[in-house]
Write a structure and sequence with these properties.
By secondary structure, this protein is of the alpha+beta class. About 20% of the residues lie in helices and about 30% in strands. The protein has a five-stranded antiparallel β-sheet with strand order 2-1-5-4-3, with helices on one face.
């Protein structure tokens, strides 16, 4: 499943999954509050990419504690945790829906 809005056969819009998961230093999922509609393989791939970014930054002595990837409708925020990471998945609020 892509992490984009999809319509059901009835035409109603499904909400994007929201939750968080932690990964160890190899990018393996340790714990998760992400709905089961998100494939485990996708979470593993995200986790491995996030850990690789943090490890790469550490190799070049770069202080890098947070990673944010923003897509048109989705946001991934990751924070380093002693070699692993905690990763938050959340739908992005459209500009027209934000309240000032």
């Amino acid at each position: 499943m892509d992490l984009v809005n999809k319509q059901t056969s009835a035409g109603e819009l499904q909400r994007l999954p929201t939750g968080a998961f932690t990964v160890d230093a190899q990018g393996r999922v340790v714990s998760s509050t992400v709905p089961q509609v998100v494939p485990a393989a996708l979470m593993r791939d995200i986790g491995q990419c996030v850990v690789a970014v943090f490890q790469g930054a550490r190799k070049v002595n770069m202080t890098f504690s947070e990673l944010v990837a923003q897509y048109a409708t989705f946001k991934i925020t990751a924070r380093e945790m002693r070699g692993g990471a905690i990763i938050f998945l959340s739908p992005k609020t459209p500009k027209w829906a934000s309240r000032s």
